[in-house]
Every structure is written in C-alpha cells, then in structure tokens.
Design goal:
- With 517 residues, this protein is α+β, with helices and mostly antiparallel strands.
- The chain folds into four domains: 78 residues, Flavocytochrome B2, Chain A, domain 1, CATH 3.10.120.10; 94 residues, Orthogonal Bundle (Butyryl-Coa Dehydrogenase, subunit A, domain 1); 114 residues, Butyryl-CoA Dehydrogenase, subunit A, domain 2; 152 residues, Butyryl-CoA Dehydrogenase, subunit A, domain 3 (Up-down Bundle), CATH 1.20.140.10.
- 43% of the residues lie in helices and 15% in strands.
- The chain contains 17 helices and 15 strands.
- A hairpin with a 5-residue loop joins strand 7 and strand 8.
- Helix 7 packs across helix 12, helix 13 packs antiparallel against helix 14 and helix 14 crosses helix 15.
- The longest helix is centred in the C-terminal third of the chain and has 34 residues.
- It is elongated, with a radius of gyration of 26 Å.
- Bound molecules: protoporphyrin IX containing FE.
- Protoporphyrin IX containing FE binds next to strand 3 and helix 2.
- One of its GO terms (cellular component) is cytoplasm.
- Belongs to the acyl-CoA dehydrogenase family.
- One of its GO terms (biological process) is fatty acid beta-oxidation using acyl-CoA dehydrogenase.
- This is Cytochrome b5 heme-binding domain-containing protein.
- Keywords: FAD, Flavoprotein, Oxidoreductase.
C-alpha cells in the first residue's frame, strides 16, 4: 500500500503530546497514542529535536531496525516525505550481508575460494533463507520463553525433502540416494557442506536454542548409527532423523567430565545375559529434557560400555538452569534400576571408550564451525553499531581506540575461518583412520583457539556496546547473549585446557627421536 505524500512543514505542525508525528528514514509515524506506551518513555519523543522532526539518526542510535518491522509499530506509519526515498535497506531473507567482513571470504564478491563449488553455494542459499525467514524468529522467541524449538521447525528439519537432521551427522552412507536441502545430492555431501550448514544455522543467534535444536542428536546418534544392532539401529535412526523422537548423549556426571574413565554409572548384566540393569546419574545432558532416548556411558565389569536407554521406568530428568536458556533442555538424569535388553548395547562389551571417542573429532570440529561463525556475527554487530552510534557528535567508528579493537576482532575471525577451512579440506581428503591419527591434535588446537578468540571478541564487543552489551533486549541483545554463552563452547566437547594438552601429547608421540637442535 502506498503511503500518503507529506511535506516536512506539515509534519512539523504535529509536535506536542496527543498530536505527535516524527520522521524516520523518510517515513512519517503518528506517535500520538503510542507515546504513552513507548518503552523509552513519552518524554524523549516530545524533545524539541524529535517531535515533528526527522529523528532518523537518534532513532538508529537507540533501536535495532527490526523494531520498525514489527506489525504493531508498522501500523504507526501514516505517510512518506514528498520526493524522498528510504535510505535504510532492510535485508530480504537469504540476502548476504554487505557489511565488510560480515561474511567469510568465499561469500564475499570478488573473492575466490578453492574449497566451495555450486553445490555448497546452493545449500548456503537454501539454509540462509530458512534461517532468515523462520529460524531466527523461532530462536529469539524460545530464548525468551525457555521452550524448545517449535514443532514446525523440527518437522521441517526432519522432513525427507530437506534431510537437515541427517546432514548434521556429516557425510556418509546414511545420505546416499537422498536429495538434500538446496538440491544437494546425498553422494556429493562432504564436510564443506556440513560446515556451510552449521555456519548458516548459528546465524539464528540463540545459543541455548541451538543446542536444544537436536544438538544432542549430533553427538548421541552417531554411536547408534555406527555401533547399534539391527533392527533397533534402523528404527532409532529413522525416528530421530525424522524428528519424531529425540536422542541425547549422556556421558558426563557430577563425578566426571573430561575424565571419561572416571564415570560411576554402572551397568550389570543379568545371569542369563539377556538384560542389563543401569544405576547412576548424569549431569549437563544437552537436550536431555526433550529426549526419548539416551546414549549412556556406563561402567561395566571390565571397563566402559555404551547403551541405548529409552525413557521409561526408572529414568528421570530434571532441568538444570545454566547460563544459557532452558531451550537447550539441559538435564540432570537419574537411572534407578533401569532394565534394558542386551540388544541395546552399542559396540562391544567393555569397549565403550572407543565408541565414545570415535565421534569426538567430529563433535569438536562442528563446535569450531559454530564458534567461528558466531564470533563473526558479533563482529558484524559491532561494525554496524559503531557506524550508526553517534557519540561526541561523531560515529563510534571515528574513535581510534574503537578502531583498534575492531582491527583485532576482524583479524581473529578471519584467521579462525581460514584455519577451519584448511582442517575441513584435510577431513575431506583423509579416511576416518587417517583423520584420527593426523587431525585429533589439529582439531583440538583449533577448538581451543576458536573459543579463546570467542572469549576475547565477547569481551571487546561488550566494551564497545557498553551497558547495552549487558542488556538482554534491544540494541545489544546478540552481544549480551554471546558474552553470556560463549563459554559453553570452551567447556563442552572437551575443555580448552584439556584440548590444548591433548594436542601437545599427540605431537609428543610423533617427535623424531633421531634429531637434535
Ligand atoms: C516509530 C517510532 C518508535 C518506536 C516504534 C519505538 C519503539 C521502541 C522500543 C520497542 C523500545 C525498546 C527497546 C528496543 O526494543 O529497541 C524503545 C526504546 C527507546 N526509544 Fe523508542 N521507538 C520509537 C521512536 C523513538 C524516538 C524517535 C526516540 C528518540 C529519542 C526514541 C527513544 C527511545 C529510547 C531513549 C529508548 C530506550 C533505549 C534503551 O533502553 O537503550 N524512540 N523504543
């Protein structure tokens, strides 16, 4: 609908309580009734520089542009200034950002990359559109109300037409013969496709939400897929990949985290060998509150064994309130004499350590993809804020101290992405066995560095946003969430220090014995 044409003089007549118009980006808003409801108060709108005037600069120094897109505020539009056009371009779903360094170089015009082909680009486009049009709003709502992702989102991700859930397990036979989101052929799907998808999904900017969005599946389902016994394996795989059921990985305990060998949950075999009885507790289980199945690490007579435990008698989950939202469904679980059939054993009896360790590299690499991209999102937020926020009569970008911070932030995200792409290229060109022996150290160092960088970027971003970086709503909401939750990546999937140490211990094994300085 076209808006009525108005002159600035006409707008200037409406400059008092009960009769109040303002211009924002050439659009005239009637705030007469809204002023009393304005979250920033009525007084600021009656200021001589605002009432009846062009308030574009002051508006964008205080609000995100998305405020103006909300239907309840869009209704306040009554006209457009004669002969002028909107200067602020609202991105369409699927658009690439035009802010420098907001996209990795492979998505930046004029840059080339040896790693990505048309199929990666087509997947990127499809996921970006889905995130912009659906996932972002769902993530923001759930971060606020603490609930898990909506049924529509879960259905879409599990749909046979998109196969998003299946893609999140990485390349493999489970994708063969399938047509994937963005028209990608299952056989063509490689680690770069997975990187693209993971990096696009984190743009929904809900850290707890993201973990609740089948994060448990990414780590809990591979042991079933790779070590499960038929027919249970296929049944659970189909149920979880279609989003009908939810699974999580239950390893860590109040007694043991990174020290997997120190687990205390026990599994005892019945005399006839047909069942196992499980007793113990698990803590910090991502998605545990939503789960129908748990992939559980247990102490058995000769070591560790992994079992698939369905929710049922003797299984109880309690919500743990962590620093990110309860949308993640983080649970404390108690197993009280839970009896399961022997067919639910995943991998060999007492051979559970291998089952658990076998997915560690992939899990850590996925976390690097997410961490590097969310750090970049924060850099984009900072660049935009510094360009539109005026202090002492100039944009923040005019302050050398701010530019110095931005320089290091940009350099860090560029370095992380380049290293990540290099590691991903190696993954595409190594067998699983080669990856285990050559890349465990690289991936451990990369994750350690990505999360260190996140911590530094989070810290700088808050300094740049000031109080807004500590406020859950409004301008700094993404920065606030990032600084509050970036630590999850530094702890989950192997603590920063443990990973650094792992990398060095791995290299020690390969140090040449016949060489001296
Ligand atoms: C169409 C017109 C406007 C709408 C719909 C609107 C809406 C809002 C909303 C939703 C907030 C809460 C914070 C957020 O979500 O970003 C807010 C805060 C605020 N608004 Fe407005 N606003 C409008 C115009 C203005 C103008 C012209 C000024 C000029 C002074 C102003 C000053 C403020 C202030 C000072 C705050 C508090 C900001 C903070 O807490 O950091 N608003 N406004």
């Amino acid at each position: 609908m076209s808006l009525k044409s108005m002159t600035r003089d006409e707008v200037a007549q409406h400059n008092k309580a009960g009769d109040l118009w303002v211009i924002i980006d050439s659009i005239v808003y009637d705030l007469s009734k809204f002023a009393r409801l304005h979250p920033g108060g009525a007084g600021v709108l009656l200021d001589a520089e605002v009432a009846g005037k062009d308030a574009t600069t002051v508006f964008f120094g205080l609000h995100r542009h998305e405020v103006l897109l909300k239907p309840q505020y869009k209704r306040l539009q009554i006209g457009q200034i004669e002969g002028s056009k909107r200067k602020i371009k609202v991105p369409e779903p699927g658009d690439l950002s035009r802010v420098p360094y907001a996209e990795p170089t492979w998505l930046t015009p004029a840059f080339k990359s040896p790693y990505y082909n048309d199929s990666h680009r087509s997947l990127q486009k499809a996921v970006r559109e889905f995130v912009d049009s659906t996932l972002y709003a769902d993530a923001q709502a759930c971060e606020e109300n603490g609930k898990r992702a909506s049924a529509e989102v879960l259905k879409f991700m599990g749909d046979a037409k998109t196969n998003i859930n299946a893609m999140r397990l990485g390349p493999g036979k489970h994708l063969h013969g399938k047509e994937l989101f963005g028209g990608v052929k299952g056989e063509d799907f490689d680690y770069f496709h997975e990187l693209v998808m993971t990096q696009e999904l984190v743009r929904a900017a809900g850290r707890g939400y993201a973990d609740g969005l089948n994060g448990g599946m990414v780590i809990g389902l591979p042991p079933v897929m790779n070590f499960g016994q038929e027919p249970l394996r296929t049944k659970v795989l189909n149920e979880v990949l279609s989003s009908e059921k939810v699974i999580s990985l239950a390893i860590s305990e109040a007694f043991a985290g990174s020290d997997v060998a120190g687990l205390r949950t026990t599994a005892v075999k019945s005399e006839d060998g047909k069942t196992w009885t499980i007793n113990g507790t698990k803590k910090w289980i991502t998605g545990g509150m939503h789960s129908d199945y748990f992939t559980v690490g247990c102490r058995t007579e000769g070591g560790l064994t992994v079992f698939l435990v369905p929710r049922g008698e003797g299984v109880e989950t309690k919500q743990i309130k962590t620093s990110y939202s309860t949308a993640a469904g983080t649970a404390y679980i108690t197993f009280d004499n839970v009896v399961i059939p022997a067919e639910n054993m995943l991998g060999p009896e007492d051979g559970g350590l291998l089952v658990i360790l076998s997915n560690f590299n992939h899990e850590r690499w996925v976390m690097c993809c997410g961490s590097a991209r969310s750090s970049r999102l924060v850099v984009e937020e900072c660049l935009q804020w510094c360009a539109q926020r005026y202090v002492f009569g100039k944009p923040l970008l005019a302050q050398p101290v701010i530019r110095q911070k931005l320089a290091f932030m940009i350099a860090k995200v560029e370095a992380m992405q380049a290293w990540l792409e290099n590691v991903t290229y190696q993954m595409c060109n190594m067998s699983y066995k080669q990856q285990s022996s050559n890349l465990a150290g690289q991936i451990a160092f990369l994750k350690m560095m990505c999360t260190r960088v996140s911590a530094e970027i989070g810290d700088d971003a808050v300094q740049i946003f000031g109080g807004r970086g500590l406020t859950k709503t409004g301008m700094g909401k993404l920065v606030e969430q990032f600084q509050r939750t970036q630590k999850f990546d530094a702890i989950l999937g192997g603590a920063e220090e443990v990973l650094g140490d792992l990398g060095v211990r791995q290299l020690m094994r390969k140090m040449p014995k016949d060489q001296r300085l």
